[in-house]
């Protein structure tokens, strides 16, 4: 093998081609934010385990199920979750799992069990689980905004014609 250096050419901002001795070695694709195709999906959370559901939702919000996945570009889909109040947890988590938040005042730590959260705001249970699995920062917040969670069986996104996604 010769000691000639590799030659890298830039074909625009989104593709890089590396040549070695005039032969093509690799071609890296990078998704552009304006060309990403985003679909709408609807998921029924009835009887689904919270962690397993949240893992798959986070994966699809990031776009890791697509061939054109790029870590620094939001390539994920929109997801509508229905029946968040009927999500399941294993073991004694229904009574033992605690959710904490702080009001901002001194001594303002608040806690609630899983049962209390489901009774008060069932959407937050799935939102908290999914948000913890997404990247932290502006990109993760953009991915999280594509998640729509509803406690009941009705949603107001019929105009987007969501496809049923079985998880």
TrEMBL record:
InterPro entries cross-referenced by the UniProt entry: Ribosomal_uL13 (IPR005822), Ribosomal_uL13_bac-type (IPR005823), Ribosomal_uL13_CS (IPR023563), Ribosomal_uL13_sf (IPR036899)
Name assigned to this protein: Large ribosomal subunit protein uL13
Family (UniProt): Belongs to the universal ribosomal protein uL13 family.
GO CC annotations on file: cytosolic large ribosomal subunit
Gene Ontology BP term (one): negative regulation of translation
Organism expressing this protein natively: Enterobacter ludwigii
CDD domains: Ribosomal_L13
Subunit details: Part of the 50S ribosomal subunit.
Matches recorded under PANTHER family: LARGE RIBOSOMAL SUBUNIT PROTEIN UL13M, RIBOSOMAL PROTEIN L13
